[in-house]
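Fold this complex.
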Amino acid sequence: VKVIALTRAQALTQVWTPEFVEALDGVGEFDLVEHGGDLSDANAAELLRSYDVAIVGWDARPVPEELAASPGQLGYICCYSGTIRAVVPRALVQHGILVSNWGDLPAAGVAEGAVTLLLAVAHQIPRSLRVQQEGGWGFDGSLSTGLRGLAVGVYGYGVIGRRFVEMLRPFGPRLRAFDPYVDVLPEDVEPADSLEELCRWSEALVVHAGLSDETVKSLGRRELALLEDHSIVINTARGDIVDQEALFRELQSGRLRAGLDVLEPDQLAADHPIRSLDNVILTFHAVSHSAWPVRGVDPRHDRVLEQLRRFGRGETPQWLFDTDRYDRST
Amino acid sequence: VKVIALTRAQALTQVWTPEFVEALDGVGEFDLVEHGGDLSDANAAELLRSYDVAIVGWDARPVPEELAASPGQLGYICCYSGTIRAVVPRALVQHGILVSNWGDLPAAGVAEGAVTLLLAVAHQIPRSLRVQQEGGWGFDGSLSTGLRGLAVGVYGYGVIGRRFVEMLRPFGPRLRAFDPYVDVLPEDVEPADSLEELCRWSEALVVHAGLSDETVKSLGRRELALLEDHSIVINTARGDIVDQEALFRELQSGRLRAGLDVLEPDQLAADHPIRSLDNVILTFHAVSHSAWPVRGVDPRHDRVLEQLRRFGRGETPQWLFDTDRYDRST
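Structure:
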């Protein structure tokens, strides 16, 4: 398999690490061509036609639309990141050239962010850090909570909710989920018939729902009031699913605890009283952020290599776009 | 099965919750008898002889030694906590009365504490909380690290190390372990031949070793220097396994990051410069602390109920003491 990455200007060093390039060379014949932004569309198309696969992503020269009608050798465009529309014209997807992106990779990151916030709130890390900074030693741990036996309610059981449950299971929580669009749950996850029922049962409520007309502000004053004192709310999904003012009131009174990666709007006054509370962790939509690791193979690298191996064996790559998914994507 | 709990004075309300008592009544015929401290040894023994099982723990009246020679009905003493020697005389174990405690329950707590610290340090929760408190929004996330693909080295692969790996596995890290006393590791945990090799490989090094002549100060200046820049050290085991001054220097220079539940000695000057760093979380030997949950069955309750069911079915309970284990216990 002949593989090319044609970058717009200089290649991003954190993407094209020596390890990644070496691994690509092991899978096929790989060329990294920089400064593709200097090429005309015709010349870029001509170059890409002589390869089987093009790897694209944040630093890619956009793929010329004219390849749709005459792709030459080019059968597969593999995107190492999520955003596809800025780089691959719709016509290529329409003409049946295979186009994939990183698929559910971010789901694992969002789920890990939710686990991080849940553990940090449950084990009172903010309180602990304050004692650390103020010169103390130890604190009243009567609100510290291990996950074993904890009643964790999962609101929304899509790809992120599923990954979250997989990550949480070994800690031994009790699990319940509410998702009107999911019929089958794993044996150890009890279904809840309503969000109300879920709130009444949960000691920690974790939002993994998508934002829609049905879910907007669905976790309101009434639902939050059903949670027991000191229960935990985790939101790494969308801020607007929660009635934020109602939640903030419950946090300021000290009745609930929360880890919030998302707010609506995505900002907060510099002097907002919520900022100084020990029962709240705010992470500015960044808890799932993962810079490229110090060493070794990045998960995004892994995913690209996995797809190229599939393609090389004549199998269909995963996370392919059709025009529907293309139109819904960002 | 006839089951008794004979408490010294008043029964601890956080132990004998209505839910626990109801569950015990479901497993056998259960009596909770308070103020056993007022009974003579002879009278206490007489009472206990008419039950099959005695549940003991922090609030129990000590079991009279004379039961060893004439136990009557009493065949099993089930301790809901860890400490056994203050409540059950050695002679009962020696005479073959079954005696068990909570077994590996604390191991899961210590392992969960280590996961909590690893996630909190990797996702820069201290930095995030500082921004939250100081009125900012967002921060440079170039040191934020997801666990997927991260090289996690486990130093010590006993019961806690094993539980830690079980909890970490779904996050998708690469795993390696060093333990000279363990021959067989799971397929996805590569053995390291030395602590040096483990340090050279690890992006996060997690201490789960016991303290011994071999391990004391074993993670010293030379070993720490083998870790890459921004690597993470987690210690929920014993402070003295690490050369603390060497680690503190690496933290003050900003070269390493750490989550430390244990220090040696178990204190720190109120104005120690380590306290103000964003690359350090100190948790004062409390990160594994779990107060009794808001609602529902406590893990310690679960363990007792599980053992009683085993005993009721004629199976051998787990975590039994022989005189060897009794002599080594606290």
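The mean pLDDT of chain A is 94.
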